[in-house]
Amino acid sequence: MVADEPTAALDQESGRDGVDLFRRLADDTQAAIVMVTHDNKILDSADRIVHLDDGRLVEGS
Description:
The chain is α+β, with helices and mostly antiparallel strands. The protein has one domain (2-60). Helix content is 30%, strand content 25%. It has one helix spanning 12-29; strands at 2-4, 34-36, 50-53, 56-60. A two-stranded parallel ribbon has the order 1-2. Strands 3-4 form a two-stranded antiparallel sheet. The longest helix is centred in the middle third of the chain and has 18 residues, at 12-29.
């Protein structure tokens, strides 16, 4: 699944609920979810974080 800014139009609580739902979905189905975000508050739910600058990989963890 690919999610582009899934929390952009949501309040903080709804955004967290949505990200938690993605996390459970990924865990339950062993699926990969690629999420693009500018919201640093949801990064704690990620297994891996990749930073891009002008389309180039600058950091990955």
